[in-house]
Design a protein that fits this description.
It is built from three helices and five strands. β4 and β5 form a beta hairpin. α1 packs parallel to α2. By secondary structure, it is of the alpha+beta class. The protein has a five-stranded antiparallel sheet, covered by helices on one side. The relative contact order is 0.17.
């Protein structure tokens, strides 16, 4: 495995990205969010390193808490985190509100189930995990880089605060 160079700078930048101020979002009454999301580990550094995955997951939870505080005056919103079991680059925090693009608020996942397996190690270190509801969704993705596209089933952990007004 290739050595990860510039870790100190990388984590300093991750500290900045987990702050709400790093994302130019408009929280005015006439704005809206149509599945807005951000991937803090877009390059998938957490795929090969458990410490990196833990740091990114904790940063997603921190950003989710800040977004939740900023959205409290809105009243109608959905806020959740998706964590992919296959690719850390797909991990993201989402905001969804009523919007002019489509009549899809509140959004509901068609197949959310309670996870039957033990939660991954990178979730065990999150403080206050009992405040969140964690459910599982299966998503079929296609590996288009092979000669014949391959169908792969990914297990997505969908995490939202307990007691949300508009649960998924």
């Amino acid at each position: 495995m290739k050595k990860f160079r510039g870790k100190r700078r990388y984590f300093r930048n991750l500290q900045k990205e987990q702050q709400l101020s790093a994302h130019p979002l408009d929280f005015s009454p006439d704005s809206w969010f149509d599945f807005w999301h951000v991937h803090l580990d877009f390059d998938g550094h957490g795929n090969g390193h458990l410490k990196m995955r833990k740091a990114h997951v904790q940063a997603l939870f921190h950003l989710m808490d800040e977004l939740n505080a900023a959205l409290q005056t809105w009243g109608q919103y959905q806020l959740w985190i998706e964590l992919s079991r296959l690719d850390a680059g797909l991990d993201a925090v989402f905001i969804h509100t009523n919007n002019p693009n489509d009549d899809n608020f509140p959004f509901t996942y068609p197949t959310l189930t309670e996870p039957t397996e033990r939660l991954p190690d990178y979730l065990q270190t999150v403080e206050g995990l009992e405040q969140y509801q964690i459910r599982l969704s299966e998503r079929i993705i296609y590996d288009a880089f092979d000669d014949e596209p391959e169908e792969i089933t990914d297990h997505i952990l969908v995490i939202e605060r307990r007691g949300s007004r508009y649960p998924l």
